[in-house]
Amino acid sequence: MIAIAGTLTFAFLGAIQALYGPLLPGLQRTFGVETSTVGLVYSAHGLGALLGILLPSLLRAPALASRWLSVATGLILAGAAAISIAWTWHAMLAAAVVLAVGFGIHVVRLNSLFVAGFGKRGMAMSLLINAAFSIGAIVGPVVVGLAGEPSTHLFRGVALVALALLPLSALADKKGRSVTSALGHAAGAAWHARTPRRSRALLVAFVALMCFTSGAENCIGGWTTTLALANGYTFSSAANFTALFFGAILTGRLLAAGLAHRVQPAFLVVGAIGCVAVLLAVGSVAHGAPIALVLTGFAIAPIFSATLVWLGAALPTSAHANALVIGGALVGAGLFPPLVGRIIGEFGVSGAPPAILCIALAALAVALAIYTTRRR
């Protein structure tokens, strides 16, 4: 039941996140905002998602402990319905924050349940639901295209899908109570039995690792089209490189799901980041840049899920570790692409691959530090 609910929900989340881009022209027309302002919808989504990721750790209410999936789906339903009838720009942004809170709760809750609840198959199952997210991200823009006109009325459909998923979320909550209870007990006295300073330092290292890897991924996804244009490709061909990058991530996650239980997560993370660094070094050569960046998608694919599994092995008694580490991923996704943009402004597009390579090397250094610390 949790597997079915998680797969369908993550595909739904991917479609929601992918809706905003194609809807930007419709949002500008509907609310009469400038191009520089309409991008605030991404800020609203990021803020709400970060709050949703941290909320289950901040609110320890017993009544919510085993109902988070239902609460998350309810928030998506309420936010989507509010977006579809929003009469002002600020009301639309507020509704987007509400929807994104539910989005963030689902991300941290389902990843935690999959990693902890499926034992040795946890990493493979986490890879599969994140692959479902990628499929949803492909379907979302297709739905906008079929609708013919970008409009907030599309969120009525989002609300209806959330309403249909609500009973499934309630059933998954019921099935997940035993896992929730186990996670809660694990966060008890054993956590205090560890050396607090060492444990906190290790947690900070994992947060930094996810921040760097997610930052590199979003930099590649965000700047590949620009890099391809600078290499002489037409706009349609350049845009296809970005699509191929996300397609490589989807394919890589599906392939990695079959191998995940045979490879230790530490080896998988270190090896994958090393491959990303090598490909980015190749991408620093101008003519090979777009193709090399597309190929990094295969290496990036398993990093997120494998890092969560590695985190669970390193800090099995930390109740809040998943939330903090996934929050670190959001910070990296929002922090590094604009920094690479500033480097492009100073040194030209050719400065992008070396800049992203530095981020990947920082991630590799942190991963190796965690690995050697764990061995000691």
Architecture (CATH level 2) name of the largest domain: Up-down Bundle
Main beta-sheet annotation: none
N-end to C-end Cα span: 40 Å
Strand content: under 5%
Q: Taking Cα atoms only, what radius of gyration do you get, to the nearest Å?
A: 20 Å
And the CATH topology of the largest domain?
Answer: Growth Hormone, Chain: A
Uncertain parts: 184-195
CATH class of the largest domain: Mainly Alpha
Task: Write structural notes for this entry.
- This protein has 16 helices and no strands.
- α6 (122-147) packs antiparallel against α14 (303-314) and α10 (196-230) packs antiparallel against α13 (289-300).
- It has helices spanning 2-31, 35-38, 40-58, 68-85, 89-117, 122-147, 154-175, 177-186, 189-193, 196-230, 235-257, 265-283, 289-300, 303-314, 321-347, 352-375.
- It has 376 residues and is mainly α.
- It is globular.
Descriptors:
single chain, Growth Hormone, Chain: A, 84% helix, globular, mainly alpha, 376 residues
Topology:
Layout: H1 2-31, H2 35-38, H3 40-58, H4 68-85, H5 89-117, H6 122-147, H7 154-175, H8 177-186, H9 189-193, H10 196-230, H11 235-257, H12 265-283, H13 289-300, H14 303-314, H15 321-347, H16 352-375
Helix pairs in contact: 1-5, 1-6, 1-7, 3-5, 3-15, 4-5, 4-7, 5-6, 5-14, 6-11, 6-14, 10-11, 10-13, 10-14, 10-15, 10-16, 11-13, 12-13, 12-14, 12-16, 15-16
Write a compact overview of the structure shown.
This protein is mainly alpha-helical and 376 residues long. Helix content is 84%, strand content 0%.
